[in-house]
Amino acid sequence: MSPSFGIAFGGGGARGLAHIHVIEVLDELGIRPVAISGSSIGAIMGAGMASGMAGSDIHDYMRSILGRRAEVAARMW
């Protein structure tokens, strides 16, 4: 039986975007957690990962949204 692990992503607004790098590294290593949990921004990152999105896809999506100030402002209002 191979070892398994679960992952919990924390909240913290923009700091939570650092979770993307963790997901990318896990993708590079070819390992997937058996359980994913998170709070706030961590729940969003965990949901992306649980839905099958690769870390690079999450990274590209977040960059497309957060890279445009007008887009960020429109989503906030």
Question: Would you mind describing this structure in some detail?
Answer:
- With 77 residues, the protein is mostly helical.
- The protein has 4 helices and 2 strands; from the N terminus they run βαβααα.
- The chain has a two-stranded parallel ribbon.
- α1 packs antiparallel against α3.
- The radius of gyration is 13 Å and the shape is elongated.
- The chain starts with 5 loop residues before the first strand and ends with a helix.
What's the end-to-end separation, in Å? Answer: 50 Å
Query: How confident is the prediction overall: mean pLDDT?
Result: 89
Uncertain stretches: none
For the sheet with most strands, the description reads:
2 strands, parallel
Give me the side-by-side strand order of the main sheet: 1-2
